[in-house]
């Protein structure tokens, strides 16, 4: 091949593309490369929070994809490749990593985020060179790189967005679009390598091959990780022909600062050194990975630091935990978090109820015994609770660092974390204590009957309080039954509106409206936020007689006149039948050009908060959360033609619908 002497260097070698992406296959085929495709089984589930920058996540994923295939082929395909190429493409916007959408709602979420903005597309490529030695062991050498391209999207209308999503194109593509096809119509400009966006940075790949195959190994400075067959690793100058001269497989542990032998005990992610000499994970990740590896691996593996690691031959796949353990570690961490979720919630509720955060606001730096005394609680229980709060990031332990073993309890003092100062102190403007109390007292007991709720499809109050709650007596018999319950519910709604209100008020420009009426507006905190954001807007609150002065039943009484109606966390309480009844009333009260602002948590198929909240509504009211398109459809059926959706990434999202 005249055009590219680099590609021709690969002829006669068994080159494997560890990717199922048809785009990568096409790009490499087009330049005359001969290769086999063996899609990687590596699941893209690395914990993104463990990486300092998005490209590090992509690089590590590409490495794992390539390594998985390189390690699998000798056993499953009974042949050893010479070179395995893995890649991973991610889109980053607003500090978020977008991969392939899981469904249409996810694609919608991604594309609406990209609309009108510039974002980055990063493709990482990992190249694994495999060399079978005479004793049949295999040496793996790896090099990696990433390429970044900026892409600017035009403003996308709802119609355009949905037409594109309905074309099916977004589903197998990072960020939910394909620049090479219909998605090209969404793009205003790009800065950088086009093929990098499509999924493979060909130019950079050729340069990398050139460094590997055409340069004098002594003069080139391509540093890359080397994983020998026994799982150990070092950094070396690229020189596949001289694998016998690899330097000793040691690197240093950032925690001990002592040289350690990287045996199979080290986490795959922490084990591989990056080109810049940094571990792919930061220090805190070391602690996490190492502690988790204690759970998932044998003790002798963990204690292998400094001790010789028994050689592993290519015939012993069971002793090659490199890829497998990484997947298991992430999955195990996730499942442990889920199993413990209820304990964490209860720790949060209990510490809030005992007013631990208020105490430490007024008296920061108390020792456990002082907290116990102030709470009139046991020392043993208080210390356990405080430590649990520290582990959950609610409190900070001061003096003596993080090791409980190295300090006596007397020296340990506690302070509120930033999160607690913001959301858990009762005098904070964004305090969530009211909502937390509601979750603890009302929602928590209902959730112990989740199985019945799922089987029966009804609310579970009869099991908890012996009271039958139907949609006819929902508020009077449930939330407003006694003064104490009413106040608790009002505090809950008030605290959510306090946190979500500013984002709701500014999700759309509402300055053209002169009068607004918050239907079911409870304590008026959402109304207050709107009035604050729009000084020209006069807002009234309409709710049941026991709640406000301007009172009435949304379903029975005449609605006050306004040119903007607000329905904040109201529709999710009701069945579709009741929602139709309510929207028809609101629509009748609207004149053309006036509007309704629906404030709800929108189901999007990905976030857990709306999905769990939907179960909560089933158990409380027999209502449910809905998707943006379900609300759009409902509103259109009631004469609201122009429907727009804004995601606030807060408790609630916002739908603005203008009456025809
Ligand atoms: C932004 C963009 C992305 N893509 C495709 O998005 C997938 C990313 O996913 P991945 O996880 O990197 O790869 P994969 O498809 O799952 O394959 P695999 O390598 O087996 O993980 C790749 O396909 C890319 O082409 C396009 O086709 N066009 C674009 O404009």
TrEMBL record:
SUPFAM superfamilies membership: ITPase-like, S-adenosyl-L-methionine-dependent methyltransferases, Winged helix' DNA-binding domain
Disordered: annotated segments: 233-277
Domain O-methyltransferase dimerisation: start-end pairs: 336-426
Cofactor section: a divalent metal cation
UniProt domain O-methyltransferase C-terminal: residue ranges: 447-640
Record flagged with keyword Hydrolase: yes
PROSITE patterns the record matches: SAM_OMT_II
Quaternary structure, from the entry: Homodimer.
Annotated source species: Merluccius polli
Protein name: N-acetylserotonin O-methyltransferase-like protein
Keywords per UniProt: Hydrolase, Methyltransferase, S-adenosyl-L-methionine, Transferase
GO molecular function, one term: protein dimerization activity
Keyword Transferase: yes
Biased composition (Low complexity): 234-254
Annotated Polar residues bias: 255-268
PANTHER family assigned to the protein according to its UniProt record, in alphabetical order: BIFUNCTIONAL DTTP/UTP PYROPHOSPHATASE/METHYLTRANSFERASE PROTEIN-RELATED, BIFUNCTIONAL DTTP_UTP PYROPHOSPHATASE_METHYLTRANSFERASE PROTEIN-RELATED
Pfam families hit by this protein: Dimerisation (PF08100), Maf (PF02545), Methyltransf_2 (PF00891)
InterPro entries associated with the record: COMT-like (IPR016461), COMT_C (IPR001077), COMT_dimerisation (IPR012967), ITPase-like_fam (IPR029001), Maf-like (IPR003697), SAM-dependent_MTases_sf (IPR029063), WH-like_DNA-bd_sf (IPR036388), WH_DNA-bd_sf (IPR036390)
GO biological process: methylation
């Amino acid at each position: 091949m005249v055009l590219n002497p680099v590609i021709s260097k690969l002829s006669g070698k068994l080159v494997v593309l560890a990717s199922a992406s048809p785009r990568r296959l096409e790009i490499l085929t087009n330049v005359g490369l001969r290769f086999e495709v063996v899609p990687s089984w590596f699941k893209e589930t690395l914990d993104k929070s463990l990486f300092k920058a998005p490209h590090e996540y992509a690089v590590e994923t590409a490495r794992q994809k390539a390594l998985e295939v390189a390690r699998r082929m000798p056993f499953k395909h009974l042949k050893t490749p010479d070179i395995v190429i893995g890649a991973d493409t991610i889109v980053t916007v607003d500090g978020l990593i977008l991969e392939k959408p899981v469904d249409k709602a996810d694609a919608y979420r991604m594309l609406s985020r990209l609309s009108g903005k510039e974002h980055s597309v990063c493709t990482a490529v990992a190249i694994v060179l495999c060399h079978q030695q005479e004793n049949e062991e295999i040496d793996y050498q790896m090099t990696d790189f990433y390429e970044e391209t900026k892409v600017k999207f035009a403003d996308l209308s709802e119609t355009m967005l949905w037409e594109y999503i309905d074309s099916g194109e977004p589903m197998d593509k990072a960020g939910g679009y394909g620049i090479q096809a219909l998605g090209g119509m969404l793009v205003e400009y790009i800065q950088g390598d086009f093929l990098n966006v499509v999924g493979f940075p060909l130019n950079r790949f050729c340069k990398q091959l050139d460094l590997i195959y055409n340069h004098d190994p002594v003069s080139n400075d391509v540093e890359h990780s080397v994983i020998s067959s026994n799982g150990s690793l070092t950094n070396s100058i690229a020189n596949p022909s001289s694998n016998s001269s690899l330097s000793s497989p040691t690197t240093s542990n950032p925690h001990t600062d002592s040289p350690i032998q990287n045996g199979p005990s080290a986490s795959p992610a922490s084990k591989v050194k990056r080109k810049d000499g940094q571990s792919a994970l930061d220090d805190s990740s070391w602690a996490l990975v190492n502690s988790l590896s204690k759970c998932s691996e044998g003790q002798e593996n963990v204690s292998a630091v400094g001790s010789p690691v028994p050689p592993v031959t290519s015939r012993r796949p069971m002793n090659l935990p490199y890829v497998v353990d990484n997947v298991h570690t992430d999955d195990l961490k996730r499942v442990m978090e889920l199993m413990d979720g209820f304990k964490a919630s209860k720790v949060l509720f209990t510490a809030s109820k005992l007013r631990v955060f208020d105490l430490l606001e007024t008296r920061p730096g108390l020792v456990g015994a002082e907290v116990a005394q102030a709470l009139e609680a046991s020392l043993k229980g208080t210390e356990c609770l405080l430590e649990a709060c520290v582990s959950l990031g609610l409190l900070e332990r001061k003096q003596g660092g993080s090791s409980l073993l190295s300090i006596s309890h007397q020296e340990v003092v506690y302070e509120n974390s930033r999160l607690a100062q913001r959301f858990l102190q009762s005098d904070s403007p964004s305090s969530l204590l009211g909502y937390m109390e509601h979750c603890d007292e009302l929602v928590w007991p209902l959730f112990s009957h989740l199985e019945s709720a799922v089987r029966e499809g009804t609310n579970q109050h009869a099991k908890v309080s012996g009271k039958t709650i139907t949609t006819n007596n929902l508020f009077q018999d449930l939330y407003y039954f006694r003064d104490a319950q009413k106040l608790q519910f009002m505090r809950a709604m008030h605290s959510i509106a306090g946190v979500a209100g500013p984002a709701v008020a500014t999700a759309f420009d509402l300055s053209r409206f002169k009068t607004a009426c918050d239907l079911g507006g409870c304590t008026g905190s959402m109304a207050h936020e709107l009035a604050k954001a729009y000084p020209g807007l006069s807002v009234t609150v309409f709710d049941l007689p026991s709640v406000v002065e301007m009172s009435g039943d949304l379903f029975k009484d005449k609605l006050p006149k306004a040119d903007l109606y607000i329905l904040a966390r109201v529709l999710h309480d009701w069945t579709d039948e009741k929602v139709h009844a309510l929207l028809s009333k609101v629509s009748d009260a609207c004149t053309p050009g006036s509007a309704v602002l629906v404030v709800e948590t929108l189901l999007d198929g990905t976030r857990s908060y709306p999905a769990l909240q939907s179960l909560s509504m089933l158990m409380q009211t027999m209502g449910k959360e809905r998707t943006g398109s379900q609300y759009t459809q409902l509103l259109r059926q009631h004469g609201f033609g122009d429907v727009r959706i804004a995601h606030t990434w807060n408790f609630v999202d916002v739908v603005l619908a203008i009456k025809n």
